[in-house]
UniProtKB/TrEMBL annotation:
Record-listed Ca(2+) binding positions: T499
Needed cofactors: Ca(2+)
Metal-binding in keyword set: yes
Keyword Calcium on entry: yes
The organism of origin for this protein: Tetrapisispora phaffii (strain ATCC 24235 / CBS 4417 / NBRC 1672 / NRRL Y-8282 / UCD 70-5)
Places the protein is found: Endoplasmic reticulum
One term under GO cellular component: endoplasmic reticulum quality control compartment
Descriptive protein name: alpha-1,2-Mannosidase
Amino acid sequence: MVWYYTELYLVLIYFISLLDIATASDHSRGQDFAPYHFTDKELIYYRNEVKSLFYESLDNYLEIAYPFDELLPISCVAKKRNFDDPGDIITNDVLGNFTTTLIDALTTVAVFNDRDKFKELVNLVKETFPNGFAIDSTIQVFETTIRILGSLISAHLYATDPSKKVFLGDDYDGCLLDLAIDLGDRLLPAFLTNTGLPVPRINLLTGLNGLTMDLVQENNVAALGCPMFEFTMLSVLTNDAKYEIMTRYAFDKVWSLRSDLDLLPMSLNPQTLAVYTQISGIGASIDSIYEYALKGAILFDDQDLYEVWHDSYTALNINSKQDWLYANVHQYTSMLATPWIDSLSAFFPGLQVLNGDIEAATYQNLMSLKLWDTYGGIPERWNFQPDCPLQGLNNSELVDKVLPLEWYPLRPEFIESTYYLFRATNDPFYLNTGAHILKDLKTRFKQKCGLAGIQDIRTGEPQDRMESFVLSETLKYLFLLFDDKNEIHKTRDNIIFSTEAQPMWISTELKHRYSRNRYFNETIYVDHIRYVVDEDKRKLEKELKNSKNSKQFDLVKGIKRIYNEEAMSPAMQQIHDRFKYQISEYYKPGMCVISNFTQHKDRYQNKVMLSSNLLNNFSKLFEIENIYNETLIKPDYLKYYDQMEINDQFYKIWSSGKAISTPSSSTFSMDIVIDLPGKLRWNMLGNGDIQLDTMYGRRKIRLEKIYPNDLDTYGNYAEETVFSRLDRNDIRSERCIEVGNNTSVPYIYRATRINGIFLSESNNIYINKKAFISDEAHEGGAKFNLFDNFGLNKDHHLLLECIPIVNIFLE
Ligand code: DMJ
């Protein structure tokens, strides 16, 4: 329905804009349309601009830098692998001397439907590698898998699918698949370790021989688990299941290393399983593991992968999610581990959209937008809260303190998520974001020979580098944002983008062929998988034997932690001091009013009855500025840089003139965590209420503490009369009578989130009373009585410290 109306509107706007062209054209910029109406003409213009940026950069690469891996866009020379120093892993991990830019860019040309160019580039790849990848380069297995192997596979799919515009038919001999097989065979020995987890690097010519310990000892979980995606595609295309079996075993093994909270560590030793970083989150080192769990579930129609996604996403929502971002937390305690987020986490909203979680995606993506507003790009790392006192610092010192990593190499993640959100909502808000980024690319990032990132966001110093993902991802997603009718959007092929934006799909015929004809017979891999599986069994039996006498669940009995700013025990106080960010105030007093611009009675606005949902109906569009005002600091040189969502022209056309912004609340919010052994189960009712029949598993409930006349999370003033009607007496015990006058309460609690899910103003949580007490030993032997920590009044409200939580009912 939404699509239908929107298309109708766009047609309408198109005609209106035609009428207006004579006077509204922006002739000074050589365009014959009125910008920010997003008419077909305007979108074509944007698409062409993206294409020009792409082709200019690619042509320069081919002319100047080919057959090396990259082109330096400012100095206009090739960026090569560091042949002199094989230990320079920062350079050499992705530059295998295998024309990275050319191969990674192949499918962007396919997405442009440019068959001639596609054919020319495929032939060039074929000519370049007559002997496959017999190159003496030690490279990163994961990076090579996503940038080279995935690109070859995806381009092969385009070349061989008659339904695609760039289908090559007789002009193609399968050379890309041959190369993919050759490369896959060179990478796969990385999985021949005693654990079945891959070492991070391998030499394309000599394999594992001669690799020094420092090159192979630490691998991150994304790199350990994710090759499964591209390698399974390779199996599907060849019927040789060894690629799938070896890499899928590694994926499953990685997942088995999660903590009780279902949180994965960031990196470990693939030979010993020793964990190097017990931190979990959604950013660098770990990002794609979630991505490939969900995308793999869809592409391969795989329920087990979906469960991995489901459980890991639930764990992230419980343990790492804050309203606007996912923080890095300790994998065993879920305590906040770092005060920063990194740029790569901007991909997550795209994944949430794939999961159908549009509201959550909207929130997370706005964080990236505000970062772009502030820094003109997404800093590699940004402190969302200060990690040291900031008082007395001048602007440049402040910017320095809040950007632990200060570069932006034109990564795609923000534009990728913007693209997904536009596909899901059709809100012009996202087209505006794209138009803004496109303008930035042309004016701030374009250099003599290509697109260059920013080396130092603090000063705006450009970076003389164009990584291959700029052409394969950043520009592809930007183009697709403006190309509603691209064949990718019209197909029934269930196309899924790889983490490198390489489109992947499996036809029904191929799927059947693989399930009928798959084989697994290469001795070295068959023997190896037998060996690691036997090892697993042996270890499991040993563990079971040892655990017979121990009480497994003693550690997670009852409530583990209750965070409260008052009445803390000294021990709790110490924890609080050490990890104060975990229970930091989420909201600070203050008002957020849109006052920076005037409303124009514009003639387009009178004619075009369209508005952006996000701009007009999302009441928290400006909350981020308020919450993160301490660390969202604009560098001086960007003082006059536009805040894209209130760009005057966009706002005039797409706001209804009634855009609202809820003032920030004056209340204090805290999280309480209830951990009980067992499996988390719950029921979301149609109206958004939550029904809990058991309390097993982990619940993280955010409670807002509201005093009379406070402004609450939803923008309401708490009227005094409400408080006098509430009962604070625990009907199960006498203990609350001593606390004071039972006829009124000094403040109340209200639940605003549960396990990362937002509750609306009218939502309640209903808990089965029986879930509060367990007299029986169960799932590991724990008995509990949650009433020791809570209470219950006669109106069935749950009481915390004898204070009613007004929307949690025990029945
Ligand atoms: C790309 O190679 C891929 O998107 C990967 O998943 C993360 N890093 C870069 C882009 O930032």
